[in-house]
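pinning this so it doesn't scroll away 📌
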Amino acid sequence: MTNSFVHLLGYAKAYFHLPYGQTEDVVRAHATNEIPSIPDYSTINRRVNKLDIEVNQHMGNDIVIALYST
């Protein structure tokens, strides 16, 4: 699983306010035949948290989601 895929999962989790288990379910539902090894929710949790993704949700009157990785 590449870091760009983990960033995508982190973005989806943050944007849709999903728990990690539902994030896994979304990937399974939409990419079963496309992705050879779909990570489970605990792997998604560990990898997203290792990337130190910060989500800024409110700036002014608009909702903004920004992802940062160090």
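📌 and the second one:
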Amino acid sequence: MLPILKKSVLLLLAAVAAWTPVAFGQDAKTVLSNASKAMGADNVKTLQYSGTATEYSFGQAYDANSAWPPLVDKSYTRTVNYGTPAWRVDRVVADVPPDRRGGGFGGGVPPGPTQSFVVGPNTPWAQQLDLWMTPFGFLRAAAKATDATVESKSMGGKTYTVVTFTAPNKAKMSGYLNANSMLDRVETWVANPMLGDTMVEAIYVGYKDFSGVKFPTKIVVKQGGYTTLDFNVTDVKPNAPADIQGNPGGGGQPAIAATSRKLADGVYLILPAYAAVAVEFKDYIVVIEAPQSEERAAAIIAEAKKDIPNKPIKYVINTHNHFDHASGLRTFIAEGATIVTWRGNKAYYERIFAQPHTLSPDREETEKKKISIETVGEKKELTDGNQSIELYRVHDTYHNAGLLMAYLPKGKILVEADLFNPLDPPGAPKPTPLVENIKRLNLDVQTIIPIHYPPDGRAVTIADLMSAVGGK
């Protein structure tokens, strides 16, 4: 029995030795220092890495069950200055297929010359996040944290040493170090007005040596459950020139106060873009569109009540589920309004609007109003016998499966989103689908209200639309 006992003891000691870095209380600083040395990060002040990539437009899915739509980059380079901190992306975009489904980049990003984007040191944490989720960025951010902890976790059949600290947005940020002290994964949480507390994941695969530093050759970033970046890295230059110029980054532009003007009896256009329309019914108000943010939605609500006093907002019409057009819906839920949207969005909205918003609590997080949704198939009419709004699902558009447009027959006004933008750049797709849908439905349109309203506030007419498609 003694040899068997001896063998068992040896196996136990081996298991303990393998677990020692965490089990015997190795602190986060030591773990991070070892990882920095193993990855060659100690003396890296700047980093440039490049290759090819596919980006995916977050929140712009074709329908509620689709992934974020793609944009292919023929070349993609990131230059990072960890000291500033700042970073720049330079990309050359491939041709966008005309049948690409979804929003975001489709038709709005011309192929050809290099496009550059800069994130500076004064931007909000959510904008800086990509920098601090890079392998070397995470090591630096974690090393500066005063509350970093370390533990052992298993994932996908592997055991990781996991370093966790609290990010500036009060969310936990964790890095997963493998047995070779390479960072395989970083995960954290950010606030999103649609999804609430949303996980962001960066996955790093295929580490190689580049001039003395270890860096992954495959980077995949996910947000909201779907990929936002798939980056194949072919070249890495440590301490490359990184005098990053451009917009240094601030806290965003100051909010512009909502204004309104009367379009017809009981109908008010609320500007600036993203625009909304408030319509007076006998006993209530209907608002068309709740875009962008809680702040913008609150301004629209206030302006609608100023134009149409002493009546509640009963309905808010949602043209489609892209996040830039729907991120104010929770504010209208808290207001007590019923959402009117395409039928394919109902289950999706009921699910995501029930998710917690603890990182950036909004009004609905506090008030917990019950969500109410009415749906549209092909057509729906809201009427009180005098005022009416006709809602139609748009056919033959690649932008969104459930895109709705609203027609006000008394004023001959059509409200539309992402079908016709009068200031679209040269080369943008012609608004032919809008013309074809107007003809299909035999609508008598005089005035058009694009949700992406021209910043100069000009009136937009059916003549402008016909001119854009080359007709009369």
